[in-house]
């Protein structure tokens, strides 16, 4: 049975901002990075202590460094840093979104929303209620010795995390996003669209800016993570649509688009990923395990 941890704090209520991930990545290349104190980072980055915590939080969630604090740049972010330092390519933003949300073993508001929430509209109050009901229903087994069932933090902490989620993904009223603004780059993805002062649309729809290459990489990455758990390399279409951690969930795509994307993923991988949709049989199959072992080679194709 899967075990879980929760992380509803650490960002100091700062949403992800332009330049932060590369700022951390660039600093992590310094020879004395491991010995740098928060005060050193305040000077290096020209920000206050709370913002240092925020930068480290988002870098950790994307996978630029591991939870122990050691410098460990993920292959995925390395490609972004090398190819698109300023996040000018929308594919970089979709990739960062995938990296943020794929690890469902550590629960955050954004991971819960993109992996469990089925509604077509959302606001802060409804999301708070949903998260509480989810924890009551699922009874997530804790990965800590302190408790057997994972517990939510106090409402105040949870509400702050929910607010940070909206700041990270919701487009501002002017619809202007720039590197010099305080807007989160992930608001460009259009996953949360403002409906009125409090409510946002989060419909399953066509993701026109999501390239087939990013979707296919996420598909390979998803099955790669499942294989590490000893899971099968075959999955029904319904399971792929509904299972937490799947690209269909995280990218909030409608059923028809997922079908089309799977067909194109099969073409892009020369049939190594099989998509069957005949005579009532609908399934995805990894036909050759080599496609999972070579996922980083496919990652590089995103920027070609």
Give a structural overview:
The model is unreliable at 177-181 (pLDDT under 50). α1 crosses α3 (49-62), α2 (38-45) crosses α3 (49-62) and α9 (212-228) packs across α12 (255-268). With 304 residues, this protein is mainly alpha-helical. The protein has helices at 20-28, 38-45, 49-62, 75-83, 90-101, 109-116, 124-138, 155-169, 212-228, 237-242, 247-250, 255-268, 290-293, 295-300; strands at residues 5-6, 106-107, 121-122, 193-194, 200-201, 234-236, 273-278, 281-286. The N and C termini lie far apart (40 Å).
Task: Please report the number of helical segments.
Answer: 14
Q: What Rg is obtained from the alpha carbons, in whole angstroms? A: 19 Å
> Widest sheet: strand order?
3-5-4
- Main sheet, how many strands, which sense, barrel? 3 strands, antiparallel
Pfam families: DUF4007
Protein name: DUF4007 domain-containing protein
Domain DUF4007: 8-303
InterPro entries: DUF4007 (IPR025248)
SSE map:
Elements: E1 5-6, H1 20-28, H2 38-45, H3 49-62, H4 75-83, H5 90-101, E2 106-107, H6 109-116, E3 121-122, H7 124-138, H8 155-169, E4 193-194, E5 200-201, H9 212-228, E6 234-236, H10 237-242, H11 247-250, H12 255-268, E7 273-278, E8 281-286, H13 290-293, H14 295-300
Parallel strand pairs: 1-2
Antiparallel strand pairs: 3-5, 4-5, 6-8, 7-8
Helix pairs in contact: 1-3, 2-3, 9-12
Pfam families: DUF4007
Domain DUF4007: 8-303
Protein name: DUF4007 domain-containing protein
What is the gist of this entry?
Pfam families: DUF4007 (PF13182). This protein is mostly helical and 304 residues long.
